[in-house]
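We both want to read discrete structure tokens more fluently, so let's practise on a single case. Would you supply a protein for us yourself, any chain you care to pick? Would you write everything just below, so we can both look at the same thing?
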Amino acid sequence: SSLSEVSVVPTGPWELDWSALTTTGQGYDFVYSDADGLMLGFYEGLTPADLEGQFLDLELVATELWNMEIDAGTSASLNGLEGFQGFTRTDGTWILALRCSTCPNPAPLFLTVLEPITAG
């Protein structure tokens, strides 16, 4: 719940760039080649504080969940994420995580809260 939210436009394109990351969520050096998966989840009616207590169950408690493999590097696009229609819901919390399928610790390498920009 102490994360600064990252603003996103409701409709794409959505190009992600994590080249400025230097440490993982656990405080280790961020190794770009470790990031091989991306998870995007929407959690209806839940706040970041609610999700903090369910950290290990983020995939289980998601209202909607999208996963995709990413190539080693520092960027990815959400434009081809199958079934994803945009950040149109504002009645909950959006979470984006970079994952490592070969790391011994299942915790995401990076996790952030996304906040859709609303008109007005």
Q: What stands out?
A: The chain has a mean pLDDT of 89. The two ends are 25 Å apart (CA to CA). The first helix runs from residue 48 to 52. The chain is about 10% helix and 30% strand.
